[in-house]
Amino acid sequence: MQEKQTPDAHEQAPAIDVHPADEAASTAAAEATAATHDADTMPSLEETLRQAELKASEHHDAWLRAKAETENVRRRAQDDIAKASKFAAEKFAQAMLPVKDSLEAALNAENSTVENLRSGVELTLKQLTSAFEGAGLAVIDPLGEKFDPNLHQAISAQPDDGEPNRVINVLQRGYSLHERVIRPALVIVSAPKAG
């Protein structure tokens, strides 16, 4: 019988020669093991879905709040416009009250002379003119000016020695409110003389 030879403790195992291709394979295996380990630490599909649903819910809530705020701003703006329209004439109305008071006082005055009445009417007219100016209402009195169809309404034309298409008579003064014509002046314009 032959005895089995056991390697001596002092003998070394033969050295294994590692080829570069084998080294790359072992690196790839190590990376695969690391990727498997990372996959274990990545959140599960359910966890990812839950977080996405939470974010979607937060965005939806923020959208609802923004929509409500926009609606509130729109409603407040409409209320402001309605109030501005309703009370736009308030300042003008307050300026007109003294004019009305003066007219009433003139009518209630007993033993008024024509001079007193005239002086009261002149004072009332000054109050009215002041109220108009305060409201941005301006008089259009174009006597002697060139005819402008945007500001004047010609009733007729009369032959005249001067330049044609000039305002030679104002039958009724016009008015503009903040430079917007609210009533054109009624005028007679000049026409060239025949001859």
What is the secondary structure topology, with strand pairs?
Elements: H1 20-41, H2 45-86, H3 90-108, H4 114-134, E1 137-140, E2 152-160, E3 167-172, E4 174-177, E5 180-183, E6 185-192
Parallel strand pairs: 2-6
Antiparallel strand pairs: 1-4, 3-6, 4-5
Helix pairs in contact: 3-4
What report would you give on this structure?
The protein has 195 residues and is of the alpha+beta class. The protein has three domains: 45 residues; 47 residues; 59 residues, Nucleotide Exchange Factor Grpe, Chain A, domain 2 (Roll), CATH 2.30.22. The chain contains four helices and six strands. The strands form two sheets. A three-stranded antiparallel beta sheet has the order 1-4-5. The longest helix is centred in the middle third of the chain and has 42 residues. It is elongated and about 120 Å long. The N and C termini lie far apart (163 Å).
Spatial gap, N to C terminus: 163 Å
The ordered string of helix (H) and strand (E) elements is HHHHEEEEEE
Extended strand count: 6
| Count of individual helical segments | 4
Strand content: 15-25%
- CATH hierarchy: architecture of the largest domain: Roll
For the sheet with most strands, the description reads:
3 strands, antiparallel
Fraction of residues in H or I helices: 40-55%
Poorly predicted segments: none
> Which descriptor suits the 3D outline?
elongated
Total of domains: 3
The top-level CATH class of the largest domain is Mainly Beta
Order of strands side by side in the largest beta sheet? 1-4-5
What is the CATH homology-level superfamily of the largest domain? Head domain of nucleotide exchange factor GrpE
The CATH topology of the largest domain turns out to be: Nucleotide Exchange Factor Grpe, Chain A, domain 2
Average residue pLDDT: 84
Any idea what the radius of gyration is? Answer: 49 Å
Quickly give the structural class: alpha+beta
Oligomer: single chain
